[in-house]
Amino acid sequence: MHNVFRNARKCTSFSRNHQNVQNAVCFPASSSAINRKFSSQGTEPEYDVVIVGGGIVGMAAAREMLMRHPNLKFAVLEKENRLAAHQSGHNSGVIHGGIYYKPGSLKAKLCVEGLHLSYKYFDEKGIPYKKCGKLIVAVAKEELPRLEDLYNRGIKNGVPDIQMVDGAKIKEIEPYCQGLKAVWSPHTGIVDWGLVTQYYGEDFKSLGGEIHLNFEVKDFKVAQESKVKAVAANKKGIQVTASNGQSVRCRYVLTCGGLQSDRLAELSGCSREPRIVPFRGEYLLLNPAKSHLVKGNIYPVGHLILVSHSSVSTLPQE
Ligand SMILES: Cc1cc2nc3c(=O)[nH]c(=O)nc-3n(C[C@H](O)[C@H](O)[C@H](O)COP(=O)(O)OP(=O)(O)OC[C@H]3O[C@@H](n4cnc5c(N)ncnc54)[C@H](O)[C@@H]3O)c2cc1C
């Protein structure tokens, strides 16, 4: 079983340089202890709580739970050889302001709160970001009622400093953009969420959490020999097994599988509903010679989006 860990190298220092961070295979400080347990003893590492999925949701949940319950033992199980290998490392990088969500909904509340907490965290950690703002531009009269609706939602949701601006102000903010009116959200920004996930991982490990990479969960079961005794005694009676045969034990499991979340839910004995419905989108990259044409995030009232993504990981904070 120790072969599983063969290619992993320990992250002794955490570089702020994004390139280094992406290339590093981050591993828990106690990885050697885990190796020994797997190989020589043949015993399974035991935890109070296991989180399946090392995307931003799994890492954020793991970090927060460990901060709230420092006496419990936590582990994250991730099937890839690094954190944030899927959506969390491949998205538009927008720090959303909370304009679109239904007023009063939890999404609206958490998005606005999350914006403030995110910037605070980035500043504390020195994570590069760009608060470049966002314009939602109406180019035809028939789009104005929908734009007005978005503005009112933004006001109700408490989106900071949101404004309705006219054509002249649009030009001032984005000189190459034309429109009748626009919603302007100056605090919307961009960040490398994959990098943020790596930082969450470092926080988690520094608090004593363990991360098992290359651990593709294939099965959850109440361990046969402990069905009666361990579960009744509230011991680590759940066995989580990987596709390579490795396993860990725990008392509680939280699955955060992103696009695999319905499959993991089913595997863990829950309903597969709601199901993940994949759909395809496309990104078009602006020729670098033309990058001055877009300064921030420009959204239509409809569906196409222009996002200024000039390598945010190397951008100075603004
Ligand atoms: C194209 C696109 C653009 C987006 N743009 C933005 C944006 O600009 N701003 C924004 O805030 N959000 C954006 N999002 C949404 C955001 O990226 C997601 O909400 C977020 O990344 C979800 O994180 P996650 O941890 O749930 O999923 P993921 O990042 O997919 O993580 C799930 C993890 O679970 C692991 N896993 C799955 N099955 C198993 C298993 N059996 N065993 C072990 N591990 C397993 C996977 O390997 C993966 O690492 C965008 C999403 C997409 C797709």
Automatic annotation (TrEMBL):
Cofactor needs: FAD
Keywords from the named record: FAD, Flavoprotein, Oxidoreductase
Keyword Oxidoreductase on entry: yes
E.C. code: 1.1.99.2
Domain of life: Eukaryota
A GO MF term: (S)-2-hydroxyglutarate dehydrogenase activity
Catalysed reactions, semicolon-separated: (S)-2-hydroxyglutarate + A = 2-oxoglutarate + AH2
Annotated Pfam families: DAO
Annotated InterPro entries: FAD-dep_OxRdtase, FAD/NAD-bd_sf
UniProt family annotation: Belongs to the L2HGDH family.
Protein's recorded name: L-2-hydroxyglutarate dehydrogenase, mitochondrial
Originating organism: Daphnia magna
Organism lineage: Eukaryota, Metazoa, Ecdysozoa, Arthropoda, Crustacea
